């Protein structure tokens, strides 16, 4: 029997199909048996499981009913299709939740893992006003972000390293109250035992090695992954040939950036300057 190898990192629907296969096999069921319980053809079941067809909300609900998984697959479908997140992002988030080390560089906004709820809400609502996402998608995005932040409380705690371009601090979002709370959050982050925060000042100029956000994950088995986003999709890279140069450049970025003490001092000065 031919068994198609699934790569859950290749697309959100591939991740859906891979998880469907995993749960089905754990229950000792064939594709035909699940399809019969769900009320659709085994060929459709196979197409969804192998990512040849994108699942619908109805299919996700029928699969949940057939496998007795509550709303597990419905929630996965909503995250994949209606969550207002970029393609590739769910795969990154899944690895982030297990990573031993997380390295982030951001160029214009505070990275999600360090955002206050108010700051995150301002960004989400701005996209709603532009018509980029719906209000429901904004709510789902904020819930997803809260889940990502909560996962950092796991034991053992991951090392989280964040280098922020100075623009992240100086770009006002939501007014003084929101920004003051966000700056306070950054200071609190820097004081945690498993974190490191640095600012890449404007004076770095051309010595800053990145012009776009960079995300690097070190998994428990020491595999290193990188993630990058364009305006329309995200891409998770695991080929060490492409990942290693980014890791090297990240270390160069840290060497050129302000120390954590200097970075916190800059944040405190900005905090004082923005206080009425």
Major pleated sheet: 6 strands, mixed
What is the oligomer described by this structure? single chain
CATH architecture of the largest domain: 2-Layer Sandwich
- What sort of overall outline do the alpha carbons produce when their principal axes are compared? elongated
Low-confidence residue ranges? none
| Structural class based on helices, strands and sheet pairing | alpha/beta
The CATH class assignment of the largest domain is Alpha Beta
Proportion of β residues? 5-15%
Number of helices: 12
If strands are numbered along the chain, what order do they take across the biggest sheet? 3-2-1-4-5-6
N-end to C-end Cα span: 71 Å
When the domains are counted, the total is 2
DSSP summary, beta strand count: 6
Named CATH topology of the largest domain: Endonuclease, Chain A
- The string of secondary-structure elements, in order, is HHHHHHEHHEHHEEEEHH
| Arithmetic mean pLDDT | 89
Radius of gyration: 21 Å
Helical fraction equals 40-55%
Protein name: Helix-turn-helix transcriptional regulator
InterPro entries: Cro/C1-type_HTH, DUF5753, Lambda_DNA-bd_dom_sf
Organism: Streptomyces roseirectus
GO molecular function, one term: DNA binding
Structure, described:
By secondary structure, the protein is of the alpha/beta class. The protein has helices at 12-26, 31-38, 42-49, 57-67, 72-81, 89-96, 117-130, 135-151, 166-170, 176-190, 240-256, 260-274; strands spanning 101-106, 159-165, 195-200, 214-218, 224-229, 234-237. Helix content is 52%, strand content 12%. Helix 7 (117-130) packs antiparallel against helix 8 (135-151). Strands 3-2-1-4-5-6 form a 6-stranded mixed beta sheet, sandwiched between helices. It folds into 2 domains: 12-81, lambda repressor-like DNA-binding domains (434 Repressor (Amino-terminal Domain), Orthogonal Bundle); 89-274, Endonuclease, Chain A (2-Layer Sandwich). It contains 12 helices and 6 strands. It is elongated.
């Amino acid at each position: 029997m031919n068994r198609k190898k699934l790569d859950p990192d290749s697309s959100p629907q591939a991740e859906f199909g891979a998880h469907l296969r995993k749960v089905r096999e754990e229950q000792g069921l064939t594709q035909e048996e699940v399809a019969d319980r769900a009320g659709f053809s085994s060929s459709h079941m196979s197409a969804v499981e192998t990512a040849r067809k994108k699942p619908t909300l109805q299919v996700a609900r029928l699969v949940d009913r057939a496998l007795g998984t509550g709303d597990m697959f419905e929630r996965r479908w909503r995250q994949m299709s209606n969550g207002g997140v970029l393609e590739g992002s769910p795969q990154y988030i899944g690895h982030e939740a297990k990573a031993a080390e997380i390295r982030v560089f951001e160029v214009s906004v505070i990275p999600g893992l360090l955002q206050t709820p108010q700051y995150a809400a301002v960004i989400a609502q701005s996209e709603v006003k532009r018509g980029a996402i719906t209000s429901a998608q904004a709510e789902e995005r904020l819930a997803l972000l809260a889940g990502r932040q909560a996962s950092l409380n796991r034991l053992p705690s991951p090392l989280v390293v964040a280098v922020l371009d100075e623009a992240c601090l100086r770009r006002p979002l939501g007014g003084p109250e929101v920004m003051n709370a966000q700056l306070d959050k950054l200071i609190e982050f820097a004081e945690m035992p498993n974190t490191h925060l640095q600012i890449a000042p404007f004076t770095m100029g051309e010595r800053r090695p990145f012009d776009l956000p960079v995300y690097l994950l070190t998994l428990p088995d020491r595999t290193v992954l990188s993630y990058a986003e364009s305006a329309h999709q995200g891409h998770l890279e695991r080929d060490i040939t492409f990942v290693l140069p980014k890791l090297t450049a990240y270390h160069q970025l840290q060497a050129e950036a302000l120390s954590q003490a200097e970075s916190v001092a800059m944040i405190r000065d900005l905090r004082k300057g923005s206080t009425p």
